[in-house]
From TrEMBL:
<protein>
    <recommendedName>
        <fullName>Protein LITTLE ZIPPER 4</fullName>
    </recommendedName>
</protein>
<feature type="region of interest" description="Disordered">
    <location>
        <begin position="46"/>
        <end position="82"/>
    </location>
</feature>
<feature type="compositionally biased region" description="Low complexity">
    <location>
        <begin position="58"/>
        <end position="82"/>
    </location>
</feature>
<dbReference type="InterPro" id="IPR039312">
    <property type="entry name" value="ZPR"/>
</dbReference>
Length: 82
């Protein structure tokens, strides 16, 4: 009876050790993915910022050069709201 308990204890200890190792591996992977996501998000924000700045400059140039063009040209509005 005592030998059975020791074997079961050893088996559970080994399973626990494997779970802890896998958990640590997954934690490191999650950290790397989070860093990659943050880098991609920053890159996207920079691109959007450049695009918005470029559009703003283009719109102000159009409104200064030609008074008959609308500053909303190219945009559609939707009046349906949920």
């Amino acid at each position: 009876m005592h030998g059975d308990m020791e074997r079961l204890n050893a088996k559970l200890y080994l399973q626990n050790y494997c779970i802890i190792q896998e958990n640590e591996r997954l934690r490191k992977k999650a950290q790397l993915l989070n860093q990659e996501n943050q880098a991609l998000l920053n890159e996207l924000k920079q691109k959007l910022s450049k695009t918005n700045n470029h559009k703003g400059t283009k719109q102000s140039n159009n409104s200064n050069g030609n008074s008959t063009t609308s500053s909303n040209q190219g945009f559609t509005s939707s009046s349906s709201k949920p």
